[in-house]
Amino acid sequence: MAILVIAEHENGALAGATLNTVAAAQKIGGDIHVLVAGQSVDSVAEAAAKVAGVAKVLKADNAAYAHLLPENVAPLVVELASGYSHVLAPATTNGKNYLPRVAALLDVDQISEIIAVEAPDTFKRPIYAGNAIATVKSNAAVKVISVRTTGFDPVAAEGGSATVEAVAAAHDAGLSSFVGEELAKSDRPELAGAKIVVSGGRGMQNGDNFKHLYALADKLGAAVGASRAAVDAGFVPNDMQVGQTGKIVAPQLYIAVGISGAIQHLAGMKDSKVIVAINKDEEAPIFQVADYGLVADLFEAVPELEKLV
Amino acid sequence: MKVLVAVKRVVDYNVKVRVKADNSGVDLANVKMSMNPFCEIAVEEAVRLKEKGLASEVIAVSVGPTAAQEQLRTALALGADRAILVECGEDLSSLAIAKALKAVVDKEQPQLVILGKQAIDSDNNQTGQMLAALTGYAQGTFASKVELAGDTANVTREIDGGLQTVALKLPAIVTTDLRLNEPRYATLPNIMKAKKKPLEVLTPADLGVSTASTYSTVKVEAPAARSAGVKVASVAELVDKLKNEAKVI
To answer: Is B236 on the interface with A (CB under 8 A)?
Structure first.
């Protein structure tokens, strides 16, 4: 029994989400092979070969796989899948995009966003915005699973010595093409993997006021997130959104500033180890999940907090 | 061109759901049900395409219980021309729903199918991608902008690092993100008019679709509750607690 893990990568570097996905594969048990699909991915394949616990790296280097267009990547994974009991991908926007296409082509149901492995065929996953945890059992010949990265501690990026094997298969469906992208630039840690996250909501009042959070975040080495209200109001770009429909985070410390704590926001952060809420409304639902709550005006509390940490 | 929109009846997004005592599922008896918020955005986008003269007909489809007719009537009140319900009692997997939708696509031959990116109950985020796989069409998931030009759809997608634009050959499948548009409200005259619009009811058997699934739910539990926290009186006390009690900074 072997497990195929599809690597997440960007700009020639292996993404951290891959390490959490390999950790999930280790919980299932069996040889772990990593598929690196993309264009000019030699450095990614080398990095994947060094990941602890990986037995083999499959490198599919082809212009058709650039930007992981699902129409082209899915047939590649399907072609490889017959040799595996499980196909795993991180539940990133890429994984969520191509993996269900793989599952349907294999005629099996996909298990989305697992947070725990109970047995090789039994997994736990959150439903209803994290308000219930379902234990599901799959009897599919090939189990296609996306992994919620915050549910698994990453494996070491070093220590492995897997062989790298090139995959010749080229699938170009000719249905779609990449036009362009606009990536948000930031020097702060990546939101999904950060140890500390400072998030702002509607209470920030405008985009300019987020500078208070950036200053605090820089002092703490934290990433900055936002609630949907802050994104919709145009204060910050949408890739900063934390919640059921944004990113799922589970940092050591989550500081929610001016966020009421709607169900949809809690879905994205309530597995954080320590939650701090700063809000002037003492009835705000965020206080029901906060380990430390401070009822205060954020425009006074945040600068003071920045000075004291 | 014809546009097909898939909608799902789900528990209202404001409802705090409770897990049943026997762990068989979530208690949905006497709970307010609504159209899935992402599906509302899909309907709105289709209606806007029609208003721009790009779509000739908007067909709303749902795969679900008899009561899902309510959500189809809502879609009709928002501007869809006619509706199809693929009626089935049990809760189907995303793959089974995609297969039913594929049969409807074969029957209706739409140029564009718009779905929500995920349903807020099962949180699967699968059906649109699976439908694309089964039909062999291109997919534009998590769309925040859709532009049609001839036989191409340019779709701007929300990705982890920002935005990405892809060009899709039509016919294609698009799934909506929250920022695609702001859905309108149905007005009373439109709700009245919607009652007269055609609603066809089919079964998976009529469409020759199998609803078998490769997974089963063993149990459903409530998540671990967080223990109640404390309120601190000042920023200094908060910093002290974080440094010395929680030891996180």
So the answer is: yes
Q: Which own/partner contact pairs does B55-58 have at CB distance under 8 Å and 24+ positions apart?
A: B55/B1, B55/B2, B55/B3, B55/B112, B56/B1, B56/B2, B57/B2, B57/B3, B57/B81, B57/B82, B58/B2, B58/B3, B58/B5
Q: Are B4 and B114 in contact (CB under 8 A)?
A: yes
Q: How far is A121 from chain B (nearest CA, A)?
A: 9
Question: Is the overall model pTM greater than 0.90, yes or no?
Answer: yes
Has residue A215 got a pLDDT over 80?
yes
B168 touches chain A (CB under 8 A): yes
Pull the structure tokens for residue A255: 């500081």
For an interface test with B, which of A291, A298, A299 has the most B Cβ atoms less than 10 Å from its Cβ?
A: A291
Pick the closest to residue B7 from B133, B148, B127 (CA basis).
Answer: B127
- Residue to mutate among A97, A98, A171, with most B CBs inside 10 A, is A97
- Which three-class secondary structure string do you get for A82-96? CCCCEEEEECCHHHH
Residues in contact with B177: Cβ distance below 8 Å, sequence separation at least 6, in sequence order: A245, B38, B41, B117, B142, B143, B144, B157, B158
Please tell me which residue of chain A has the smallest CA distance to B170: A175
Q: What's the one-letter identity of residue A167?
A: V
Question: Crossing angle, helix A93-105 and helix A70-81, to 10 degrees?
Answer: 50
CA distances for B179 relative to A241, B4, B87, B143, angstroms: 12, 20, 30, 8
> How do residues B50-98 score in pLDDT, each as one tens digit?
999 999 999 999 999 999 999 999 999 999 999 999 999 888 999 999 9
pLDDT score at A200: 98
Calpha distance A213→A196 (Å, rounded): 12
Residues of A in contact with B20 (CB under 8 A): none
Could you give the ipTM of this predicted complex?
Answer: 0.95
Q: Is the peptide bond preceding residue B171 cis, with omega within 30 degrees of 0?
A: yes
Instruction: Give Cα B114 to chain centroid, integer Å.
Output: 9
Interchain contact B31–A (C-beta under 8 A): no
Q: Where are the alpha helices (DSSP H) in A29-162?
A: 42-49, 70-81, 93-105
- Cβ within 8 Å of A, B 128-157: 128-134, 137-142, 144, 154, 157
Q: Residue B213: count other Cβ atoms within 10 Å of its Cβ.
A: 19
H helix runs in chain A, sequence order: 16-28, 42-49, 70-81, 93-105, 210-220, 228-232, 263-269, 298-308
Of B95, B132, B160, the CB nearest to A109: B95
